[in-house]
Amino acid sequence: MTNNRFNRLCRACVVACVMMMTTMTVLAGQAPVTVQWRMGENLGKSYSSQFIIKNVSGQPLDGHWMLMFNQFSRSVSVPEDCPVDIEEVSTTYYRIQPNDRYRTLAAGDSLVVPMTMGGTMVNVCYEPGGGHIVLNGDVAHPLAVEIDCGTLERPSQWHAPAKQYPDGNYMYAYNEAINGIGDAYTGNDYDIFPTPKQVDIEGGYCTVGNSVTLVPSRPRDKDMSRVCQMLARELKQRGINSAAMQKTRITLDVNEKLNGNPEYYTLRVRDGVIDIVGASARGLENGVKTLVAALDHCKEGRLQNASIVDWPDFNYRGFMLDIARNYIGGLDTLKRFVDMLSYYKINTLQFHFADDEAWRLEIPGLPELTQVASRRGCTLDEQGYLAQIFDGNGDPNDLTQSANGYLTRGEFIELLRYATAHGVRVILEVETPGHARAAIVAMKNRMRLNPNAQQYRLWDDRNTSVYTSAQSYHDNVLNVASDDVYLFIDKVVAELQQMYREAGLTLDVVHLGGDEVPRGAWDQSPDVQALMARLGLTTQHQVSEYYVDRISELLAQRGVRIEGWQEVALNHDEAFNQRVAPRVAGVNAWSTLGKQAVVPYQLANDGYPVILSNVTNFYIDMAYSWHQDERGLHWGGKVDEIDAWSALPWNVYASVRVNYDGDTVDLTNAGRDMVALEKPSNIIGVQGQLWGETLRNFAQVQYLCFPKMLGLSERAWNASPAWGDHLDDEAAYNDARHQFNLKVGSRELPLLHSRGYNFRVGPPGIRVADGKLLINAQYPGEVVTYTLDGSEPTLDSPRWTAPVALPDVPAVIKARAYYLGHSSVVTYLFK
After folding, report:
1. Beta strand segments in 650-734, E
2. Among 192, 200, 222, which residue's Cα sits nearest to residue 291?
3. Are residues 766 and 703 both part of a single domain?
4. Are strands 316-322 and 683-690 parallel, antiparallel or unpaired?
5. Best CA proximity match to 129, nearest among 471, 631, 472, 476
6. Please, which of 185, 331, 338, 643 could form a disulfide with 746 given CB 3.0 to 4.6 Å?
7. What is the average pLDDT across 678-707?
8. For the stretch 205-230, what's the b/e string if a residue is b when 16 or more beta carbons lie within 10 angstroms of its beta carbon?
């Protein structure tokens, strides 16, 4: 045997052995590598970082592997001599793959991959996740790899406006402004969220024992029976049974002549007798919820005698939950979320179940929408499921991952019934004509598997338009010139109507999105260009108008009006507005930044019913602060509970007291040259939005909601706080803010804790003055620990109780707050 033949044989044996060992690793279900990621520095419009890939298999790792991961970014590059390449597979989904410079990675050795990512590292949500490795091209069987991202420690590793980063001094001033340490909140039993309009406390108490008698005035009335059942159910959950001939009696009545507002109610509590009267069943329901909340806040079942008159300023009090981007839980989780809304008198759930990233509701006759578009995983061609987005382990069948999951038809009907029983209306959102990628990919899979099923072709095969959506998609817009698009939407809405009927309800509103159609999406679409030529359209805006006009008319024939984001109603002529506005049930106006702050009032003046959805106050997915460890986005700034509570629906221009850069806003001059609100009756409500890009589970949902939801519910119910009419009276605002914060911390967070909800605790403040360490907290009763050696504070670290002498100020002081078993992010004070 010649040396060449011998060498070739040896190499073949080595390759075979490596492949066999790799196969053994696959069979064992263990990844052959561990992965670390370490942040470098922000560089302006990009940032440096590196992956450290270590071979832990015990055998050499040849070049037949791909490491997949997710990360927010727009571009990525590696040095020219790097032995691996990194490329974007799909939005947020990247592949690291050996190139010609790669040799083998010996057992125990590590490969360092330096890279530059486009954009800015803001917080932990921008770190990589979703790691999994593919061996020998076996995309169907990826192996999960947990990416160890370390910690962000240096200011150069995150981004925040200079005046907005919550370091020790910032947080000290913040906490000092909203909480006088040692203050205790004093309130009556009815000082709940949202605050009732008028409460007159009378002498004495009504003792509510283990049993009460419920006396509905119209026991056979369907709506009153539902409200009576609601009260009985809530009382039973609190250990109070309903039975005849009990000492304490609760009467329920409806008096249509009571007030013109159907949600108006009165509540009278006297010794042994509680009377609730509503202007309608909805008003009666509000009175029941107030009684239940008061019972939760009273001591030992002894309610203060009182007379209450109350009503909401807005009859639309909404919350949008996005389960498309990430599936945060199934039916039981969504019921728990409905409980949250109902308790705080938020009466509308905008259910965002379809978007670019997934379709989460079963539609009979269109099984691909959930078989394909509710699953995300490792794929290079999206045949069978979507590419992994945001996070996951590469397995499209793993329902423990937020990438995967959907509601069955039966589950959704049960959710509808549950929400109705709790006084919450569900409005479904089907995103169109943009944000439609999941549906498009699903229908492409449908036609690939069944060439005869050519109906519902949502795209134009000949469209060569080059565009990028706000979320970096290039193929997410429907072909609005195709009749198939309207057949598809009509089919979906017909199935949704049937689900509502089976739940005993009527579907009369569907939210159709309408936002963020990327510029140029139809420029090279022969179908759309032919449509434009036929109708004399010259701009993309006119094409969008055509779509809104046609789809709203189509659904009107089904007795369904549309809702949409502000783009649906913006910048149309009077003829369009007069024709289309009557078909529109609501428009979510979110623009409250800069010159775009005119949008809500402009839409109202144009005749559209406006739902204030201010990004600066009500986007619940915005992070609480610019801290590097606070989850959430920041394109609209930061939003905390004070921001939500500070919103002024009748003066949106004065709803933000500090701008994006941290500069104080002159509220008395805000909006002076802006559009005035001429038709206030067209402002129909307030809504919070929780988008799902950064969510991975229900605990994170609760963290972002509480305590922000308290500020939202307060402003949705009471639109005109006293200080809102006196913007130059800082003392009045500060006093109101102080009381709100104490009410949150001293009354509501303990209640949420007792009911098992997660919530956020604000971080402590740190200050060094006159050689002494000073620390404060957001709420009375918090425990704060600190360190001076750069280590992470824990409950075992020194507790701050009084000023501490500091002969030498260390390079960094860290502190963390603890309250009711919950802990804050760590506050840093750099020397």
Report:
1. 683-690
2. 192
3. no
4. parallel
5. 631
6. 185
7. 98
8. bbebeebbebbbeeeeeeebeebbeb
Is 557 part of a structural domain of the chain?
yes
Place of tokens 């150069």: 156
Question: According to the model, what pLDDT value does residue 4 have?
Answer: 53
691 with 706, same domain? yes
CB atoms within 10 A of CB 5: 9
Evaluate whether 736 touches 648 at the Cβ level (below 8 Å): no
- How far apart CA 682 and CA 120 sit, in angstroms, is 40
Distance of CA 649 to the CA centre of its chain: 21
Asked if residue 144 and residue 10 are part of one domain, the reply reads yes
pLDDT of residue 453: 81
Residues 789 and 809 in one domain: yes
Same domain, 659 and 682: yes
19 has a pLDDT exceeding 60: no
Confidence of residue 29 (pLDDT cuts 50, 70, 90): confident
- 163 located within any domain: no
> Tokens at residue 573, please?
């002529």
Structure tokens given for 192? 């709940």
Which residues, in sequence order, are CB contacts of 355 under 8 Å at separation 6+? 322, 324, 325, 431, 435, 438
Same domain for 573 and 707?
yes
Distance of alpha carbon 557 from alpha carbon 536, whole angstroms: 26
Among candidates 400, 420, 409, which has minimal Cα distance to 335? Answer: 420
Instruction: Identify whether 613 is part of a domain.
Output: yes
Q: Which residues are CB-contacts of 253 (< 8 A; sequence separation ≥ 6)?
A: 216, 217, 218, 275, 276, 277, 278, 284
- Regarding whether 808 and 675 lie in a shared domain, the answer is no
183 — pLDDT class (breaks 50, 70, 90): low
Among 157, 187, 219, residue at a domain's last position = 157
Choosing from 310, 328, 354, the residue where a domain stops is 310
Question: In the predicted model, is pLDDT for residue 1 greater than 70?
Answer: no
Maximum C-alpha span of the chain: 108
**In which band, very low, low, confident or very high, does the pLDDT at 642 lie, cut at 50, 70 and 90?**
very high
**What's the pLDDT score for residue 174?**
96
Looking at residue 283, which CATH number applies to its domain?
A: 3.30.379.10
What single DSSP character describes residue 435? S
In the chain, how many domains are there? Answer: 4
Are 815 and 775 a contacting pair, CB within 8 Å?
yes
Domain CATH code at residue 795: 2.60.40.10
Instruction: Identify any residues that bridge with 116 across adjacent strands, giving them in sequence order.
Output: 48, 77
| Residues 432 and 573 placed together within one structural domain of the fold | yes
> What integer pLDDT is reported at residue 672 of this predicted model?
85
Mean pLDDT of all residues belonging to the chain: 94
Are the C-beta atoms of 475 and 437 separated by less than 8 Å?
yes
pLDDT in tens, 389-445: 999 999 999 999 999 999 999 999 999 999 999 999 999 999 999 999 999 999 999
804 lies in which domain range?
A: 761-830
Residue type, 766: I
Query: Is the pLDDT reported for residue 219 higher than 80?
Result: yes
Percent over 70 (pLDDT), the chain: 96
Predicted confidence (pLDDT) per residue in 79-97, tens digit: 999 999 999 999 999 999 9
Structure tokens at 190: 């009815």
pLDDT at 50 over 80: yes
Whats the size of the chain, residue-wise?
A: 831
Tell me what pLDDT residue 142 has: 98
Signed CA dihedral, 572, 576, 578, 583: sign only: negative
Q: Which helix (H) or strand (E) holds 644?
A: helix 641-645
pLDDT of 480 higher than 90:
yes
Contact present, 456 and 491 (Cβ < 8 Å): yes
Q: Could you give the residue ranges of the DSSP H alpha helices within 660-811? A: 698-705, 708-717, 730-743, 749-754
* CA separation for the pair 820, 783 (Å, rounded): 9
